[in-house]
Structure formats: structure tokens, C-alpha cells
Amino acid sequence: MTEAKRILIVDDEHSMCEMLAILLKKEGLEVGTAGSRAEAAERLRRGPVDLVLTDVQLPDGDGLEILRHVKSASPETAVVVMTAYGTTEMAVAARKLGAEAYILKPFDVDELRIVVRDALANRRLREEVVRLKREVGQAYGLDRVIGVSQVMESLFEMVRAIAPTSSTVLVTGESGTGKELVARAIHGLSGRAEGPFVGINCGALPDTLLESELFGHVKGAFTDARQGKKGLFEVASGGTLFLDEVGETSPPMQVKLLRALQERRIRPVGGTEEIEVDVRVISATNTPLESLVEQKRFREDLFYRLQVIPIRTPPLRERREDIPLLAQHFLERFAREMGKRVAKISEDAMRQLQSYDWPGNVRELENVIERAVAFETTEAVMPERLPESVRLPGRAEPLPAIGDGFSLDAYLLSVEARLLGEALDRSRGDRGVAARLLGVSPRSLRYLLQKHGAGAKN
Ligand SMILES: Nc1ncnc2c1ncn2[C@@H]1O[C@H](COP(=O)(O)OP(=O)(O)OP(=O)(O)O)[C@@H](O)[C@H]1O
Ligand SMILES: [Mg+2]
């Protein structure tokens, strides 16, 4: 059972206090009474109260002052105001000062019961909201970003140092290295944490849509614009705007972004007025923007605007010591979610995980563990539950049977072909990545592709 709710009745009419006290005690509430403002203040000083039920006219002042006092000292306490003089102004004043409800004397006991019950329920909801907000805020602090390696420690230090400022941040890192996670942590640790975190993938939308998403549009701006719409720059006001895949924006969009960042003002599509915006911009990119600038695919001036503070999220293969911790973290999460008893990763499996290169970084590890937990029937993840791509590099392949009919050349060629296929699969056709996975130069890769008849494609 939860503790009884405490209620304080404030009324100078003794009989009224008595009557209300009897009524509300029957409701299971713990009741205290006060006959004046001073008495009420004294009682409130002694400890928290869940609800104050107060008359407006008191010998030493009015109930609205108590209301003001309660709301400033303890905003979570609910207040219900009772009065015999039912004017609209009084009701408005009470609500403005934060009263949950307002009840006219004389009242019906059932009506009072309902008003008190509702006020207490509202208060509980408010507490819940505060608690959840706090929890969500925590969820997006640095505690969600896992890592014990030196590179991650430096990253945490950097994030802690720059989070409280409003400086523009550019997060660069390979796919799946946690760029969005870091952006959210920066927001969560900043003075803007209570404000919104609004993200948009700049690479996923055609220009016209991206523009109206970012800057909004006025009614009638284009054929489908039956209503005006706020842009994300405005929606994120007071908070953080996360521009994901910013390297993929077109040159005309880059000009528009530059203007918005320089002037901190935006103009909705089809609009004539500019709107001032108060956002912190964090952007992210897989491809280093410097190289895009070099190739003239990204404006240099915008690059400098975005990269006031550069942050790099390191690939997983540069911090292998984080793999066990991350793997165990994901294991526990998925085991809980799927209601499975898998509790650890076997030593053999862990060795495989640590020697693999993880081109898809933490996201790939997360997926591998999810799959392993789903299929595992014992309490430890066994190497066989790992996908072949992860197992292959470290596994001691049984040697083929040699003898009549065996050809070393043919065998080596088949191994080469399999590894080549694997590298192309994993790099999703990106030859630079494929070459790196195989430890060969791009030139050798071209040669290998030709040799195995895969060179014809682009
Ligand atoms: N250090 C980390 N600790 C815990 N989880 C992580 C970490 N880094 C990444 N993750 C998880 O990996 C997944 C990918 O992370 P995130 O989306 O932040 O990557 P990203 O760099 O934005 O990738 P992309 O470039 O593909 O958008 C998420 O589920 C995230 O929670
Ligand atoms: Mg991302």
C-alpha cells in the first residue's frame, strides 16, 4: 500500500474545517487543519503536503497568498481554492497562480470528493512526467555511450567540455560508430537538455522537401501546401538541431544552410518574413567533409561554419578493447528483451569477436549479438552462433585432403575467390573498403577482380 496522502484544510470557520476533515478522512487521507494564513504557513513548514484545500477569505490575508506561497515553495503540491464569492476574476486568478481547481461554497460533498480526487490524480501525473523527463534526460547522457578505451575516454572528455556551450559541432565517423548517440549525449549534457532534440537525415530527402522540412512553409507556398508548417529550425528552438549526413546536401541547399547558420534567421518557403531561431546545430557525416571540399562537392565556408568543434567517433577496430564490454552490454539487453537465459559470451566466441574488423562498427556488433542471442540455446554464446563473416578470419580451417587429383593452384584460387566475394559483400561494393579488408592495394584488387571475372562491373 502506498502512503496516505496528506491534505491541509485552511478555513477560519471551525465547523467547516471539522466537516471537511471528517469527510476526507473517510477517503483515506491524512488530514490537518489551519484556521489562518499564519497557521497554514506554520504547518507547511513542518513537512510536505500533497494537497491544500483553502478558503479565499481568511482573517489575516487571503487564500490566494497561500496559493502563491505553496506554489513557490513546493510546486508539486496541489491546491484547491474554495470561495463563497464566485467571480470569474477570482477563478482566473486562482488558475493563473497554479490552482488545480476552484470550488464554490456551498458545495455538495460528492462534488468536493471528486474535485479533491482529481487534483491528487493530476498531481501524481505531474510527478510522473517530471520523473520520466529526468529518466529520458539521463538516458541520453554519456552513460549510454559505452567505452573504456583511451580514444573513447578522450571523446568523453571532449563531450563533457563542449556540451555546456552552444557551439556548433561536427561529428565525423564511419557508419555505426555512434555519431547520433554522441550528438544526443551533447544535447543531454547541455543547458538545452530540457528543450527538444530534433534530427533530420539530409541525405534522405529531395531538395524541395528538405527545404520545407528545415525552414517550414507558408500556406499556399506550393500546390500541396494547404496549411503552413513550422520548419525544424523553429521546432528545435531552445534545443538542438541534428543535421545527419550533412555531406550529402546539394550545393543550393548548402547556400541556404549557410545563410541560416550565419544569420540565425530563416525564411519559410513562400514566406516574406524572416524568423529568428535559437538552436544549437550538431551535424554528422560519414565522409570527411574536408575531402568533399577538396572535390568541390562541399562549400568551404559552410564547412568552417559547421566544424567549429570537430569530434571524431573512432571505428571499432581502433578500439578493440571496448568489444567485450559492448558485446556483454548488448547480450544482456537482448537476453532481457527476448526473455532468454543467455548470460555470457564463450571465450572462443569472444576471441572471434575481438579479431574481426567490424566494417559496420558498433551497429554491426549489435546486430551480430542480437542474432546470436536469438538462436542460442545454451547459457553462453557459442562461436557457431556468430555469422560466417565474423568467424572466417580467425578460424583454423581444416586442411583439404591432399593426394591424387589435388591441385594446390586450384585450391588457392578457390580460397582467393571466396575471400574476394566475402570482401565485396561486406564492403557492399565499395572497392576502397574491400581492398582494405583484404590488405591489398586498390591496384591489386583491380587485378584480382579481373582475374576472377568480376572486373567487368563498373
Ligand atoms: N559507444 C557505444 N555504446 C553503446 N552503443 C553504441 C555505441 N556506439 C554506437 N552504439 C549503438 O550502435 C548503433 C549505431 O549508432 P549510431 O546510430 O549513433 O551510429 P551512427 O554513427 O549515427 O551511424 P550511421 O552513420 O550509420 O548513421 C545504435 O544502436 C547505438 O545505440
Ligand atoms: Mg546516424
Main features:
single chain, 458 residues, alpha/beta, 5-stranded parallel beta sheet, 19 helices, 18 strands, binds adenosine-5'-triphosphate, binds magnesium ion
Count of runs of 4 or more consecutive helical residues: 19
Number of strands: 18
Instruction: Give the C-alpha Rg.
Output: 32 Å
| Main β-sheet, spatial strand arrangement | 2-1-3-6-7
Our estimate of the beta-strand percent is 5-15%
**Helix/sheet category:** alpha/beta
The rough form would be described as elongated
Which cofactors or ions or other ligands sit in this model? Answer: adenosine-5'-triphosphate, magnesium ion
* Average predicted local confidence, pLDDT: 88
Determine the fraction of residues in helical runs and give it as a percent range.
40-55%
Terminal CA distance reads 71 Å
Q: Which stretches of 5+ consecutive residues score pLDDT under 50? A: none
Main sheet summary: 5 strands, parallel
